[in-house]
Each structure stands twice: as structure tokens, then as C-alpha cells.
Amino acid sequence: MAIAVCPGSFDPVTLGHVDVVTRAAALFDEVVVAVAVNPAKQGLFTVDERRELLSTALADVPNVRTDAFEGLVVDYCRSIGAATLVKGLRSSIDFGFEEPMAQMNRHQTGVDSVFLITDPRFSYVSSSLVKEVARGGGDVAAFLPPEVHRRLLERLG
Fold first, then answer.
1. Measuring CA to CA, how many Å separate 127 from each of 11, 17, 27, 72, 108?
2. 86: closest CA among 61, 58, 105?
3. Which residues are noted in the entry as ATP-binding (predicted)?
4. In what order do the strands lie in the sheet with 64-70?
5. Model's pTM, two decimal places?
């Protein structure tokens, strides 16, 4: 069984994330969307809330599950028997950031990385940008699953 991990903070999950995970699910037997736990960073949503929002957004994709991890993502991959990381790339800037990490991950543990080019509709969307625009009163509904949008507006008050 080919298991892939899509790691990230997902704070909050965007339609760009949903697109990448859905496409990855067509390539692998199982996709684990793994929320990175970073005790040094305070997210807008808790790790459990992010997992819940991911589960809701990906409910129609049967071979996807969520989890959380702390530490190195490749150690997490080994612990669940995953041989592949899947990352979405929005631009060459993302590739420049991800490529050295992919090389190091492969060197350290043999875990390979697969890069999926983001749908052009979401090529400029990031969780950070969505939060910033929403905090300023801008409309971000086009970039988020409906439940995530509702919860984001609720959280921002």
C-alpha cells in the first residue's frame, strides 16, 4: 500500500490545500494530511481544530485521513510507513524553498518528495494571506471551503 504524507500547518486549510490533497489522493492508496505541531508558534486555530476543518473539507475523499506530528516530518513518515511526501508548489519561489528540504529528506531517510503544481486559481493564495485579508475586512470566501470560511470569520470576530 502506497502511503503519502501531505504536511503543513493548515492554519486555516484553503481550497489550494484541498486541491493538492485531492489530486494526491488519486495517485496514492492513502494520503495522510499531517498537521505540524510547533509549540513555539501560536496558530489561529488549535491543532485539533485544524484537523477537524481538514476532515470536513476532505470528507468526500475516502482515502484521506488527518493526523498531527511533532518533530521531523521524515521521522513521522517512517513511523506510519509512508515513503513519499507530497507538497504543492505555487511558484518557483516555493520550489527554491522545497528542493533543498526534499534532497535532505531523501538523504536522511530515503523519503521522496512529489511536487504538485498548484491550480492557477490558487497560485497566490496562502493561509497567512487569507488571514491577513480577512482581518482587514476583505472577502476571502473564494479561497476557503465554506465551513472554514464560516469558522474563520467567527474566530476573527
1. 6, 9, 25, 22, 29
2. 105
3. 9-10, 17, 88-90, 98, 122-128
4. 64-70, 30-37, 3-8, 84-89, 112-117
5. 0.94
What's the pLDDT at 38? 83
Q: Known binder of ligand: residue 65? A: no
Measured between alpha carbons, how far is 18 from 21 in angstroms, rounded to an integer? 5
| Number of structural domains in the chain | 1
Q: What is the CATH number of the domain that holds 145?
A: 3.40.50.620
154 φ, ψ (degrees, to nearest 5)? -60, -45
pLDDT of amino acid 89 = 96
To the question of whether residue 128 is assigned a binding role by annotation, the answer is yes
> Is 41 flagged in the annotation as binding?
yes
44 known member of a binding site? no
Extract the residue ranges of the chain whose pLDDT is less than 50: none
The residue segments making up the domain with residue 11 are 3-156
Catalytic residues: 17, 41, 90, 127
For residue 40, the model assigns a pLDDT of 77
Residue 77 phi/psi, 5° resolution? -55, -45
Q: CA dist 30 to 8, 51, 96, 118, 126, Å? A: 17, 16, 27, 20, 25
